[in-house]
Please model this.
Amino acid sequence: MASTLEGPARDLLTQNANFAHVATLRKDGSIQGVVVWVDADEDGNVLLNSADGRAWPANVRRTGRATVTVANQDNPYEFVSVTGKLVQDTTEGADEHIDAMAKKYLGQDSYPFRQDGEKRIKLALQPERVTYNAPG
Amino acid sequence: MASTLEGPARDLLTQNANFAHVATLRKDGSIQGVVVWVDADEDGNVLLNSADGRAWPANVRRTGRATVTVANQDNPYEFVSVTGKLVQDTTEGADEHIDAMAKKYLGQDSYPFRQDGEKRIKLALQPERVTYNAPG
Model:
């Protein structure tokens, strides 16, 4: 088990439009799961984007952590699991970041699902535990 | 939020060869994520299959719970998240169950990845919280 996200494991988050399953801890100790867009920065941090007020980013803020699993949509036997700690939580650049992911996932220059009054937030998770399952 | 798995949410686990992201709690309180085959029974319980001795089923046994997210591989905006409690944990029928899933996922009558001495286990999770995200 590694503690850095690099090589083919990182590629899963950046090279294809693979979706992330984000698992966070609810206040009652149970696990919440959602499926969202994902990205990684040059340092191998996992980048997520959400709107302020939603449940799962609130869980990440409260616990300081999340676990993100990303499978290769063309071969789901290849996947990576990253448990990471929250190292960035900002509105700065969050709109540009969701636009960049709209390009990756939708082929559109601008995120088309914005809602009135929505404040985007960008979260960066620094990997603590990385498990990469290579394709068989 | 429902507490039963039915209709299109259940279909995600039974009608296509969609993979499940299973999130369980490690002893240290962090979340482990793995990507595995999945199925559902007639009562809407989530069915998983593993080999005795692996980490994630041990987490399920210790905590009595897991959260399973399954996205439609043809349209990942449709997904279901199920937090369920462990209601069955058995070797009985576990080999037949993994063979049935081999048919679903590989089109083969018999699970081809068996390892020497491996003891298969079949776990059933009864849904407590079900969140279904319909395709947009």
In short: The two ends of chain A are 18 Å apart (CA to CA).
